[in-house]
Amino acid sequence: MNRIGRLCIITAALLAIPLASVAQTRGPHASTHELQASWITLPPTESGALSVIRNCDGCAPVSLLTTASTTYEVGDQRVSVAELRAQFALHPNSVVLLILEPDQQHVARVQMAAVPANAR
Fold first, then answer.
1. What does pTM read for this prediction?
2. Is 42 exposed, middle or buried (0-12, 13-18, 19+ CB in 10 A)?
3. What are the backbone dihedrals phi and psi of residue 119, each rounded to the nearest 5 degrees, phi first?
4. b/e for 48-73, b at 16 or more Cβ within 10 A?
5. Nearest by Cα to 79 from 106, 109, 56, 50
6. Residues 97, 102, 103, CA angle at the centre, nearest 5°?
7. How many angstroms from the chain centroid is the CA of residue 89?
8. What pLDDT, on the 0 to 100 scale, is given for residue 58?
9. Is pLDDT of 72 > 60?
10. Percent above pLDDT 90 for the chain
C-alpha cells in the first residue's frame, strides 16, 4: 500500500472517534459534513459567517453562522479560529468535519484532521 493509501486509512480512523462522540453529545438532529479545508472560508473572528464553496459545477455556496459556542479543533486539540485558518492555508487538502447544530444554520464545531508530524 502506498503512502497516500495509508494516510487515508489513518485519517479515516482518526475521524471515526470524533464522529462517535458527536452522535452522543449533539443528538440525532445535528449533522456532520466531511469537507476539504480549501472549500471553507472561516469567519474573521470567533463568531461570524463561515462559507463553504465546493469546486464543482452547479454547487451553490453555503453560508453558515458561527457563535461564541462554536469550537475550532485540529485533531483533538482546541485552537483559535486564527490558528485553524493558518492550518487550512498549510494543508488545504486536509479533511475537515463541519458539525452543525440541529437548526442546520449554526456551526457547533469545525474539526480538521490531525496533521501527521512528517507532513508539517
1. 0.72
2. buried
3. -105, 0
4. eebebeeeeeeeeeeebbbeeebebb
5. 109
6. 110
7. 13
8. 85
9. yes
10. 63
Distance of CA 49 to the CA centre of its chain: 15
* Residue 33 in this model has a pLDDT that exceeds 70: yes
DSSP string for residues in the chain: --HHHHHHHHHHHHHHHHHHHHHHHH-TT-EEEEEEGGGEE--SSSSEEEEE--SSTT---EEEEEEEEEEEEETTEEE-HHHHHHHHHH-TT-EEEEEE-TTSSEEEEEEEPPPPGGG-
Q: What nine digits make up the cell of 70?
A: 462554536
State residue 54's pLDDT score. 81
How far is 91 from 28, CA to CA, in rounded Å? 31
Look at strands 40-41 and 62-74 and give their pairing.
Answer: unpaired
